[in-house]
Amino acid sequence: MRLTPSLLSADFTRLAEEVRTVEEAGAHGLHLDVMDGHYVPNLTFGPIVVAAVRRCTDLPLDAHLMIGNAPEHIRAYAEAGADAIAVHPEAVPHLHKTIADLRALAVRPGLAINPLSPLASLEEALAAVDYAIVMSVNPGWGGQRFIEGSMDRVRQVRKIAERTNPSLEIVIDGGINASRIAAARDAGADVVVAGSAVFGAADPAAAVREMLAA
Ligand code: DX5
Ligand code: ZN
Question: In which residues is a divalent metal cation bound (predicted)?
Answer without folding.
Answer: 31, 33, 64, 173
